[in-house]
């Protein structure tokens, strides 16, 4: 498939606060609207007996909020709480905002880091089955942000409406295990500003008044270098009823909570049981970089990109850079924090650029592929959010490998497998060439895995396909007690992230190949989680 067969590629970013969409050949997004859906409740249907639609989306929903039940279907970045409303957002985007026929345009969905695979599967099924899309691709939001900055290795700080992520990226691929999260977000700043205004005798409670607070934040708030040293001229903000709201210190203090979360806790805005999730933005950046391979830490410090609507405050980037330097009493690294021109849709612009490249078409799942192979293709093709994973095409079709003596359990294949005397490490090296340059502990991890899982398979006998859940439970018990750090915890993370998918997929495999499929899935996960670090030669 290529872009000559269909119309312009459609890019959609389903944000927890705003949905952004448009075409790859446009300079800017075609549409931006609130990610909110409204539905008339039964009481209001009787109270307002006029013609009404079942759903109202975006600005329409906001304008009719007085007689609708409003819902934002994303509780946090891509934590989908209502699928019916999510599908309405997509339907509205296709037919009301962009006015297209989805089967005539390749489609890209931007997704945040660590999004769940079952979300991807359900969206894929909906888009192909309901809208007959011609092709579909999922691209990672932070990776597209860095791509649009023309940088291959760096850290993306994404401050959205529902949460903030510090995402280190090496050569275009996210370092998943080093990614850090904070609940500090645009909505948190809104709530703090609302509390401060109400503490002055105001009574701002309605949905409309809360939207007004958001408007104050966008138009008047800024981040000071040092709040105690900066004076402020009071501002009068006109209300819809003609009255005025006096603004002074709170327009500096509200964005300040991104760097001083203790203020949130002092006001009681943060529930006690969730306080650990609220971390200063400069601290999650520090944690993310120090969790990354030491070989690339200097590059990460020098390439920090700020995206998301809540990084638009005047002075945000310089204040963040100052806070990062303050973390080091000595041996300070060189730190460079960059703000971008359009932080609200910077990743969208990156996806739009990438959609015009030759590499883009390798990431797509076509309608033909979906119809022929179904959702199992999604697991293989979209296992990683990074398009860089397609540089290792051999991973997507696991070979039927023999794992040495003891690998087979049953129907005659055992004799064949016993003939293969090559070591496990040799077979791993021949399967994924890049693993040769990795740490020796990786081979140890894989050996441990094979030894234990072989034993479980033999123990299960003929019941393995009907009782794979028990196998998975025992695997969790064996590897869950592993207290080693770093890459030795790979199996724990793999079981945690892939457990549900394995439970669905593996019982359908033949008994003789389950071990090889499990191992290949683990190796794919390893390749995604630990991108290889290129060693730089020092000139003599």
From TrEMBL:
Superkingdom as given in the UniProt entry: Eukaryota
UniProt region (Disordered), positions on chain: 406-431
InterPro entries: Actin, ATPase_NBD
Biased composition (Polar residues): 422-431
PANTHER family hit by this protein: ACTIN
Assigned protein family: Belongs to the actin family.
Protein name, per record: Actin-5c-related
Organism: Anaeramoeba flamelloides
């Amino acid at each position: 498939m290529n872009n000559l067969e269909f119309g312009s590629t459609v890019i959609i970013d389903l944000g927890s606060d705003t949905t952004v969409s448009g075409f790859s050949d446009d300079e800017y997004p075609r549409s931006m609207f609130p990610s909110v859906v409204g539905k008339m409740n039964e009481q209001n249907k009787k109270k307002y007996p006029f013609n009404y639609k079942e759903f109202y989306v975006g600005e329409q929903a906001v304008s009719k909020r007085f007689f609708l039940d409003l819902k934002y279907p994303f509780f946090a970045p891509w934590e989908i709480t209502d699928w019916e409303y999510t599908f309405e957002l997509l339907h509205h985007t296709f037919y009301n905002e962009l006015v297209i026929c989805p089967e005539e345009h390749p489609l890209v969905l931007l997704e945040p880091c660590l999004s769940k695979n079952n979300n991807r599967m359900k969206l894929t099924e909906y888009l192909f089955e309901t809208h007959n899309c011609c092709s579909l691709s999922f691209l990672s939001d932070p990776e597209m942000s860095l791509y649009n900055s023309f940088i291959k290795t760096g850290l993306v700080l994404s401050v959205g409406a529902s949460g903030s992520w510090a995402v280190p990226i090496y050569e275009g691929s996210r370092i998943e295990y080093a990614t850090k999260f904070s609940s500090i977000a645009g909505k948190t700043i809104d709530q703090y500003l609302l509390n401060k205004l109400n503490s002055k005798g105001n009574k701002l409670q309605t949905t409309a008044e809360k939207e007004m607070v958001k408007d104050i934040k966008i138009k008047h708030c800024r981040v000071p270098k040092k709040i105690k040293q900066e004076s402020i001229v009071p501002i009068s903000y006109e209300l819809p009823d003609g009255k005025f709201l006096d603004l002074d210190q709170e327009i500096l203090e509200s964005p300040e909570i991104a760097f001083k979360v203790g203020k949130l806790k002092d006001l009681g805005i943060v529930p006690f049981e969730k306080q650990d999730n609220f971390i200063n933005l400069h601290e999650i950046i520090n944690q993310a970089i120090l969790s990354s391979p030491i070989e690339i830490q200097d590059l990460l410090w020098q390439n920090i990109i700020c995206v998301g609507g809540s990084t638009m405050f005047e002075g945000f980037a310089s204040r963040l850079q100052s806070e990062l330097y303050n973390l080091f009493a000595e041996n300070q690294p060189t730190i460079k924090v960059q703000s971008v021109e359009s932080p609200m849709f910077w990743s969208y612009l990156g996806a739009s650029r990438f959609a015009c490249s030759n590499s883009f078409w390798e990431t797509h799942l076509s309608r033909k592929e979906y119809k022929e192979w179904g959702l199992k293709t999604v697991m293989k093709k979209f296992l990683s959010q990074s398009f860089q994973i397609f540089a290792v095409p051999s991973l997507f079709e696991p070979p039927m490998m023999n794992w040495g003596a003891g690998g087979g359990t049953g129907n005659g294949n055992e004799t064949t497998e016993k003939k293969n005397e090559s070591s496990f490490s040799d077979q791993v090296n021949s399967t994924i060439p890049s693993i040769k340059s990795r740490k020796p502990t990786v081979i140890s991890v894989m050996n441990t895995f094979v030894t234990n899982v072989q034993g479980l398979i033999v123990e299960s006998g003929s019941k393995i396909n009907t009782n794979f859940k028990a196998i998975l439970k025992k695997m969790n018990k064996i590897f869950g007690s592993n207290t080693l750090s770093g890459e030795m915890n790979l199996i724990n993370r793999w079981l945690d992230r892939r457990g549900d998918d394995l439970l669905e997929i593996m019982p359908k495999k033949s008994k003789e190949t389950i071990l090889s499929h499990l191992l290949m899935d683990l190796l794919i996960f390893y390749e995604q989680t630990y991108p290889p670090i290129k060693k730089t030669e020092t000139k003599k």
